[in-house]
From TrEMBL:
Name recorded for this polypeptide: DUF2961 domain-containing protein
PROSITE patterns listed in its UniProt record: PROKAR_LIPOPROTEIN
Native source species: Pendulispora rubella
Domain of life: Bacteria
Length: 486
């Protein structure tokens, strides 16, 4: 019990250390960003009825000029703000065979949101039917239209449209159930491939453009521990950081420092708006590669929570060994541990990602029916960040006290599946990790207990411990296999 009390006292210190080392360079506040944006007003030629084509406004902002079959005209900005990384938006592609804009949600040609992309998007392309895909109840019920610009038709020939003010997308209620990918409705035909065919600017060339201009710049975004977000061109060199003088991205937070020198890299090219000696409003392609790197090399973009809580219940049986014949005993109970990431090692490209070591306190209540015991101590586990392909191994050591007045030492050895669904959450990543996350799973275990009071005795039991929700819906091969990140 003394061990358990010591861990209770040490736990706040562990949390404070984790928090203290989790520092990052903050973005410039939005109200501090002041610049003269070039005028967007421009006269654009109209495509034929039933077609759409890409164009740019006076400040370099890309738009789709859309003319529907009903002759309605829209100027659609195909950018979508995304929750990760902070300050980074993505280009929403036009999917010709589906005749809609698609990325997490579905929009019609005029930028009006229709519903959830759901199981057809890139995050869920490997799920197997409804039983393995996200539940309908977990999908959003509200989404935003894409931004547009006001358009005024001009008289005369050729047919033209004058660009007006930008109109923010309206937030709308949408059905939770994903839109059927086989559903199509003839709308418009896109002319031109956007943005792949647009000319890219080198970083030096982009910096010569006037402040406020949107440019398509060839480079990688890099967020280093304890430094500002920057953009640089590194070619095939993935083992070194951007030079310190690389242009800064002023409205994006730097990478959180968590006790080691790490760097997040997002592959370009990007759209970005010129600001001071750098950029703001960076927009990535939807297929931009992402990684979090140690200075020596890349590893997976997944961030375990600062603390992960793993509750369990267990059933077991074994023998009590005392002077005389051994006696068969049951062992029932429950407990939990709270662990933090202690170290990672190994090759990032290996299946399942790096190996990770986790440490933390544990506690449990156990009964052999003739007595009840409380116990606790230190837990140690070895697994992998994304998917422990050989299972997660763990050792728990400590001591406890029983209702019969006896004290004991205990050692527990476990092997099995450890599943942390929060590690595959787009709302939280290396820039914004969770504080707490729930770990589920099921494991085989062997426990050894020994006591000298009131008489020397040892117990050896074997059994199964599990977190109950691991067996409950939604059923998933990924959950049962312990795949933390797909």
């Amino acid at each position: 019990m003394d061990t358990a009390r010591r861990w209770v006292a040490v736990l706040p210190f562990i949390v404070s250390c984790q928090t203290a080392t989790s520092t990052k360079v903050r973005a410039v506040p939005p109200d501090s960003i002041h610049m003269a944006v070039p005028p967007v007003s421009r006269v654009l030629p109209l495509p034929p009825r039933g077609e759409m084509r890409p164009d740019t406004l006076g400040d370099g902002t890309p738009v789709w000029v859309v003319r529907g079959l009903d002759d309605a005209v829209s100027l659609v900005v195909p950018f979508l703000a995304k929750p990760y990384p902070a300050g980074l938006a993505v280009v929403v592609p036009w999917v010709s065979d589906q005749e809609s804009f698609r990325h997490r949600f579905v929009w019609n040609a005029h930028g009006r949101v229709l519903g959830n992309e759901g199981w057809g998007d890139e995050r869920y392309q490997y799920c197997f039917g409804e039983s393995d895909c996200p539940s309908v109840a977990s999908l959003p019920t509200r989404a935003q239209d894409l931004d547009t610009y006001a358009a005024r038709r001009l008289e005369g020939s050729p047919e033209r449209v004058e660009v007006g003010e930008r109109i923010p997308g309206r937030l709308r209620d949408i059905p939770q159930r994903p839109i059927d990918r086989s559903h199509r409705r003839r709308s418009v035909v896109a002319q031109g491939l956007w943005p792949e065919e647009w000319p890219r600017l080198s970083i030096p060339a982009a910096l010569t453009r006037p402040e406020g201009t949107m440019v398509f710049v060839d480079g990688d975004v890099e967020l280093s521990s304890g430094d500002a977000a920057r953009i640089c061109w590194r070619g095939f060199d993935r083992d070194h950081l951007c030079p310190p003088a690389s242009p800064r991205i002023y409205d994006m937070d730097g990478l959180r420092s968590r006790g080691r020198q790490s760097v997040m890299r997002i592959r370009g090219p990007f759209y970005a708006r010129r600001f001071r000696d750098g950029f703001i409003q960076v927009v990535a392609r939807t297929n931009a590669g992402r990684s979090v790197d140690d200075v020596a090399g890349p590893h997976e973009l997944v961030a375990p929570a600062t603390l992960e809580l793993a509750p369990w219940i267990f059933v077991a049986g074994g023998a009590r060994m005392v002077d005389g014949p051994n006696r068969a005993i049951p062992s029932l109970g429950g407990g939990g541990d709270v662990t933090f990431g202690f170290a990672t090692f190994g090759r990032p490209e290996a299946y399942g990602g790096r190996f990770e070591i986790r440490l933390g306190p544990w506690g449990a209540m156990e009964t052999t029916l003739d007595r009840v015991r409380g116990e606790g101590g230190l837990a140690f586990s070895l697994g992998q960040v994304r998917h422990a392909r050989w299972g997660t191994f763990a050792v728990r050591a400590g001591g406890g006290h029983g209702s019969d007045g006896s004290s004991h030492l205990v050692g527990v050895f476990t092997w099995g599946v450890r599943y942390v669904p929060g590690r595959d959450d787009p709302e939280h990543d290396a820039l914004n990790p969770r504080t707490f996350a729930l770990a589920s799973g099921a494991r085989l275990f062997a426990a050894v207990r020994t006591t000298d009071e009131p008489a020397h005795a040892s117990e050896l039991v074997f059994g199964l411990e599990f977190e109950p929700t691991w067996f409950l819906p939604p059923y998933s091969l990924f959950k049962w296999g312990g795949v933390n990140q797909r």
